[in-house]
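Chain A, query sequence.
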Amino acid sequence: MMQNRVLVLDSRRQPLMPCHPARARALLKEGRAAVFRSFPFTIILLERASGDVQPVRVKCDPGSKTTGMALVAEFARRGPTVVWAAELTHRGEAIRSALRQRAMHRRSRRNRKTRYRAPRFDNRKRSEGWLPPSLRHRVDTVMSWVGRLRRLAPVTSISQELVRFDTQKMQNPEITGVEYQQGTLAGYEVREYLLEKWGRKCAYCEAKDVPLEIDHIHPRSRGGSDRVSNLTLACHACNQAKGNRDIREFLANRPERLAAILARAKTPLRDAAAINSTRWALCEQLKATSLPVETGSGGRTKYNRSQQGYSKAHWIDAACVGHSGSAVWLDAGMRPLLMEATGHGELQRARVDKHGFPLAHKRGGKSFRDFRTGDLVRCRKPGLPDFLGRVAIRFRPSFVVSGSDRKIEVHPKHLVVVQKADGYAYA
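Chain A, predicted structure.
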């Protein structure tokens, strides 16, 4: 099982080429390097102040829940090679849920005529480029990690999957331009969108993990169009059984299934447009870094991955983004760093019941005895083997440490901070 390469800094904290884990262990054992950061694992050389580097490209595949990231080095002999990969899990749904809950409590208090802050004038307006907090979070976290990787690796260029789906082509399949319509990417945009829209399963029998075919709800032989609203996914057996019959004829004995399919078929491209708007905002910020930015569509990413025979994974999609992803070497068994956004706490001080009435109030401080919730610590409690975990503080000398396989209460004197909380959990 291949691991990520270790990120390396020189004695002036300037990035050098990532090295093999075995090389990093040798440098640490010989005392020529020290651990600079645990996640992502980075070492700093104690004597070397410079070195030769090759071009390194940071590539990202933004998603609504998970974003894949990869560092691709341009090695002379092997060519473009993935040296580091990660999958970043966003907390956009948690932000959306918290805002909805806050709005519900405030609305409840207003309806009950209870004490509430004075209303403000309705003269606020949204600035240009405004995004909802749940979407803005996705842009900010990706940009944060692009900045970190630029400080830890000699990044010279950036690649981003700009649009997941070509919405113009899906709405108007008869768009002019022969090369645009019949190139090597023809059909990949629509297939990728249909897989997302129909949950990667057959619309008629809901079979999963089987080869799926594109089916026309209203057959083309009876005047049906190629618009995405007239397309669905079907397994081979259902596609053959349906033939050129209309869906109403084919599902005449299953009215509930018929209604569900027709309702989903009319679903607008709102989700795709929302993701595309997030990616455009991210693209603008990436261009502001002054590095060359390469963009590509989701159809191109899937085409590159399929042509090279790689399996489906977020970090593999990131490596295959754009023209530079058409010939990239990677180990499909590579273990990417898993990063989950956890945030930096919350501003809410009052704990309320289901009716919105306060039950208790949290203390204002965020740290206790130089520990903060989310710190990565090494637990050295007598009678237990040492292990790494994340700490949850209490305002008394009894903390909770959660590891991969255990969760214990421990006095802070038995804890050693390995890495301060940075808003992410790692695995």
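The CA atoms of residues 212 and 235 lie 5 Å apart. The first helix runs from residue 21 to 29.
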